[in-house]
Amino acid sequence: MYPPPPLPPRRDFISVTLSPGRSYDGGQGLRRRSFWRKWKQLSRLQRNVVLFLLACLMLCGLLSYISVADEWKAVGSRSAEGPKMRPANPPVLPAPRRAAENPETFAGASPQKPPRHFRRGPPNLQIRAPDGDAKDRRQDEAQRRAEAAGEARWEDDAQGSRVSWRGTGTEPEQGPQLPPRKAEAAPRPSPQALRMRNSPALQNERQKAVVAAFRHAWAGYRKFAWGHDELKPVSKSFSEWFGLGLTLIDALDTMWILGLKKEFEEARKWVSQKLLFQKNVDVNLFESTIRILGGLLSAFHLSGDVLFLEKAEDFGNRLMPAFQTPSKIPYSDVNIGTGVAHPPRWTSDSTVAEVTSIQLEFRELSRLTGVKKFQEAVEEVTRRVHSLRGKKDGLVPMFINTNSGLFTHLGVFTLGARADSYYEYLLKQWIQGGKKETQLLEDYLEAVEGIRKHLLRRSEPGQLTFVGELAHGRFSAKMDHLVCFLPGTLALGAHHGLPADHMELAQALMDTCYQMNRQMETGLSPEIVHFNLHPQRSHKDVQVKAADRHNLLRPETVESLFYLYRLTGQRKYQDWGWEILRSFNAYARVPSGGYSSISNVQDPRNPQPRDKMESFFLGETLKYLYLLFSDDPDLLSLDTYVFNTEAHPLPIWAPS
Ligand code: DMJ
User: Fold this and answer.
1) Which is catalytic among the residues 282, 305, 420, 611?
2) 646: CA distance to ligand 1 center in Å?
3) Could you tell me which of 220, 259, 253 has the C-alpha nearest to residue 238?
4) Per residue in 174-193, pLDDT tens?
5) What's the pTM value of the predicted model, to 2 decimals?
6) Is 77 a domain residue?
7) Which end of the chain has the least Cβ crowding within 10 Å, N or C?
């Protein structure tokens, strides 16, 4: 057989009919005549049908005209009032949308496109368009019915392998499905559940002041930001980061501890009815682990309410794709709806503090659920980081590559941003696990010696002990406020049997952190300070650059004050915390509700509110202040609980 002859190449033709002698009228006369001929050719029935359809069309047109005309009339009457109200120069951006007064009605309102919202580091942590509202409502309804029927319901997931803009298309590990649970590990109320104290009589005056501050902050959140991530107290609005009610979840255990039962119940209802993780949204693995996973686990432990554990397990499952990298060092971001994980847009590095400060939460999740993969994933990270080259006497660089698994940007060492909680979690995991994991302890002890050797100095003229930074052998006298977690961590280690000189160092650093607040005109620490190393009497110990003068309502100073008071009993630490609370009330409190971070801690007349209340103000700052003012060492005993880096208490597994 011969193959058929090849077809000629396809050509496109345009056919043109020329009609000489006809005057040009756009062909309209011709079209009219041919329409009339076609109409005549129709049967009577066909004509009637066509006429009937035309009549229907006209009727519809008439009806919709009437309704539109009504609306126009309304708009017209609104705009008649308009000119009086409108500012002479209307703002370029629309005014922020206000949340309704009633949180329940607002929580279900249609999603708006959230404002872009930037954090330290990655610019791509923005919320994506949430799923349709109707879908959310259907899921809510199904969830409500399931809960009414007494069963925990786990949403179905439309999962599929997807390829993100940078890399991994990962099959979400069991996605949101509830993994088969070992019968013996079924969740049950925590044996350590802490009874909520309802009686204000049990609270001293300072604790009552913290409760008042919390109520004020909560009132703002409830009124203007209910169910959203963060309150913008000045504009009486909100901002989204993950679109998961971050402040509400971060604050759950604080409400429990402060005895705010009504508020807790209302928030619990929101978690039960509105908190759904099947959302097309990128979350930062670290931030969402410490705030959301940690917050839910603590809420479960304190209240004994299994709802929080179920939510925690669902969320933990959705974070797991982040660990599917060539090196097993997790990506910074993961989409909890699609299961696609990825590094930041500009690099394949992750931050060292971020990948090493999720262990307490994932390990606890494994212990509670009996599902080992959570613990295995994070402990693999710990093992790999432990044996990496590039450390300096236990100090770690700030970045680690998710492909190679190696440290990058070698030679730069800090106890501040991007490295801070690595050190904190070495100690706290060791405590959490019952002080058996000696490798964690050894890494911690070595790091403390590394800090002493390379980063510790005294300022002039006041001889304040501080922790600076090292960049390629050059010392910088710069210290982030974030470093003020360190006195508390050192004191905690000493309490758990580590060398007594750790406590001495803790106390010296505590003095310094207090001075970082005290020496500012508002009594609130700036984000970063530089210490004076030169012995001229005219210079102050603590110096602040214009770009670093802001205060974000961070907890680290009061966190350490809590540990220092709890473990030494020295009242001065309570007094220092009291000063700080008074400063927050004087300079950060927004009368209509909420507290705001401020731009200038050196200008008490105009501290410049930044219109943002970070979730950690309720999750950490106010919680630590309340615990600092307590004289009851059994209120979240440090022999029973270990606090994650977002101040969420988790139980110590076994007595040492
Ligand atoms: C919190 O999210 C955590 O404490 C974290 O470890 C550091 N940053 C903030 C508070 O400042």
Assistant:
1) 420
2) 6
3) 220
4) 333 333 344 344 455 555 67
5) 0.75
6) no
7) N
